[in-house]
Write a structure and sequence with these properties.
12 helices, 78% helix, mainly alpha, 298 residues
């Protein structure tokens, strides 16, 4: 049996941790951009369509410049389609929840998905997490609950349910990347196909629902920034999941609600109290312990 070089493994894992945290930080700013898009005429059903307008041509051009073939197998194509469907459904659920409850609370509830990922790994793949992983998960959930309790403003049971459901669907997105043949694709090829199918799903639903409306100039600028961030997130998250595993990547991503809550505080006038400070400590502790944990390396 081949033995992995510890230094190579450590470097690869640390790079994976970096990619996941980068994706989480960028994702934390997306609610602000999406709010601007909403105010400029956007709708939660067409967000991924507009992102595709920017990301797909850019990914195609980069593949051409770097001489990367876009040819994929049928299995890889179906994997990308499934991943795109999970991502599209996640975006619809999460972005619609922004219209029901505060953005910080919605994003934080969405980040219950590490629990769903861990449970699905146990049920579907017979993976038995170590005690340390359950402790990390407990810290993660505690931080999420503390963040939730400090959010004020508009909130209702429907919004809470939709935000939680977005987390469950997103856990399917993570596990599909980790377990499918799409994990071995070039990051640019992965981004091209996922956003292509996302755009098709979003555009079709928007046409049927009559929500494919235009945007103002500020909306297009916000969407361009959002699309750029989303493209980087897709690439970084794919690499991070492959390097660290689905469970660890999902827990590391709890850095996102911390960023999201801070963005909500500074830009959207949402609440931040001592409880959110304790939530931040729990999140940071979970991220650090996840980065040091070796339980999900295989």
């Amino acid at each position: 049996m081949l033995q992995r070089n510890p230094e190579t493994w450590r470097h690869g894992r640390l790079m994976g941790v970096f990619y996941v945290i980068l994706a989480a930080v960028l994702n934390g700013f997306l609610p602000l951009m999406i709010t601007i898009v909403y105010e400029s005429g956007g709708h939660f059903t067409n967000i991924m369509f507009y992102k595709g307008i920017f990301v797909v041509p850019a990914a195609w051009m980069l593949c051409r410049l770097r001489r990367i073939s876009l040819r994929v197998t049928l299995r890889q194509n179906l994997s990308c389609m499934t991943i795109a469907l999970f991502q599209f459904l996640t975006s619809v659920l999460l972005y619609s929840s922004y219209t029901m409850i505060s953005t910080g609370m919605a994003t934080t509830l969405h980040f219950m998905y590490p629990v769903f990922v861990m449970l699905l790994c146990v049920v579907l793949f017979r993976k038995h997490p170590h005690v340390r992983e359950w402790m990390i998960l407990a810290l993660c959930v505690t931080g999420v609950i503390l963040f939730c309790n400090v959010q004020t403003g508009k909130q209702n049971l429907s919004g809470i349910f939709v935000a939680l459901l977005s987390g469950l669907v997103y856990s399917g997105y993570i596990l599909t990347i980790d377990k499918s043949s799409a994990a071995g694709l070039s990051s640019l090829v992965f981004m091209f196909y996922v956003f292509l199918y996302n755009g098709l799903f979003s555009g079709s639903v928007s046409l049927l629902a009559g929500t494919l409306t235009g945007l103002s100039l500020s909306g297009w600028i916000a969407m361009a920034i959002s699309a750029l961030a989303a493209g980087i997130v897709a690439v970084a998250y794919q690499r991070g999941i492959v390097a660290t595993g689905a469970c660890t990547a999902s827990i590391l991503s709890v850095a996102e609600p911390m960023v999201s809550v801070l963005v909500g505080v500074f830009f959207l006038g949402e609440a931040f109290t001592l409880r959110s400070g304790f939530g931040t400590l729990c999140v940071v502790a979970a991220v650090v312990l996840s980065a040091l944990n070796r339980g999900d390396e295989d």
